[in-house]
Amino acid sequence: xxxxxxxxxxxxxxxxxxxxxxxxxxIGKVAALGMELQVEDDLASCNNVMIVTDKGVLAAGLLxxxxxxxxxxxxxxxxxxxxxxxxxxxxxxxxxxxxxxxxEINDLGINLIIAIGGGxxxxxxxxxxxxxxxxxxxxxxxxxxxxxxxxxxxxxIPTTVGTGSEVSVGAVVKDHETKTKITIASxxxxxxxxxxxxxxxxxxxxxxxxxxxMDALTHAxxxxxxxxxxxxxxxxxxxxxxxxxxxxxxxxxxxxNLDARAKLQMASMLAGMAFSxxxxxxxxxxxx
Length: 288
Prior knowledge:
Rossmann fold, 6-stranded parallel beta sheet, 9 strands, 9 helices, 288 residues, 3-stranded mixed beta sheet, alpha/beta, single chain
């Protein structure tokens, strides 16, 4: 039942809205990452950490910004020990990378994953967490709600302003052999924490701000007109679209405007929450 018409009957409506991810927001929030994690009872003892990121950060000119270093500094003098930095995630991640990451997770006894990057990084972390916990291969869990239980917790720190994967129900990975994309949706794939720190998108090149911002706008529009549209996701999608409309051009033209980038980062997250409850449609289906 859709709610795009504000006068549509409401008395027979039925829907569920679910986003279990805890959201921590603030400029410089990453600097206190260890402290932020230690106050969470279920994460206090998860001290074997793997950072998942990508070498594309270097190609995009972001490595100089020290994004991974910010996270490492935020964990300094805490109970969390970085056992590995897995930086092999390509722009369009694939099954082989997921398998390699999952193997390292098992070999090193990783019990907490920190994903620093865009959608490909966060989705790779989700799949690696799944396989590292439950074994098997990604295709064993393909589709909706096939994941049998909780996975290794993920802290997602987005460095782009588009995917919303830090608060989304699913993940996508490419099978380069069959040239198809595999999608898995499960409440167990939601990151445990989404940490939104505008400083982590402050140096994102204008071109990537434009590309990922339009991705977020697509998410918002598709959630808003979804056949499973409902009032909570509708409100989130509408607000996300507003924020993108008001700030995308500013953020592209004026890279120093941190406020505009912060609002795009927030809009991307709101759109992610929306489409996780009112799924995307034809645009994504065709692109896949």
